[in-house]
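Handout, section B. The chain below has 264 residues.
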Amino acid sequence: MKPLSSWPQSARANIVGVFTDIDDTLTTEGAITADALRALQNLKAAGLMVIPITGRPVGWSIPFASSWPVNAMVAENGAVALLHNPQTNQVNKTYQQDLATRTRNFQEMQRIAKRVLQEIPGTVMAQDSPGRETDIAFDHSEFHHLSQAQIQQVLTLLKEEGMTATVSSIHINAWFGDHNKWHGAQWILKELTGRELTNELDQWVYVGDSTNDQVMFEHFTHSVGVANIRRFEKELKHLPTYIAQQERGAGFAEVAAQLRDSQI
């Protein structure tokens, strides 16, 4: 990972949009800080598209989709897009899977969640679970701690059940389907603009902090890790191109400042 300060101005000048993780990338101690919120506002004011992609649930994400200066928000690791209509002040939901599939998967996921809780001592559901529609999540670092061995046990069981599973900085997330943050990014850009993300990857940047961001680090020409990504460095097969000096929201603000300066 190269210092963010080494990102060439010529490359930054071509950026048209930012995809970003939320937890421990935009937020600090679970809340967005003033510098990170101001960074979002500055990016929008500069004419860049801004789209957070998170493993957080629909219910948790809706208030932020309606109040943050973003073009859209993609929740539950690419499964659901949230689009705010400023005229009606309503947030509309768009899904990758149809209702019948979601209903069937939801029932099966509740069975698997119970199995995890029964078979792996010490596991608890994430506190935001009531807002989840297309996945399940277990807390490993937000309000409850799991060891690396316990996390691996959970992942093994979930994958035995045929689920896709990832680990964020706070949760273990699992779902049925081949969608992920990368597929979600391609999907939402197509929904919003009709454009193919794969045709303009050198015009976008992704900002993240954890192992569930590495699929984005792998595909994006320009990617940045906020400084707290060092926590997961040894577990990442795909590292971001650059790393910010500061952690979490302050690190995201660094990225925004670099982009803002290149647009002047």
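Note. The first strand starts at residue 2 and ends at 3. Compare this with the example in section A.
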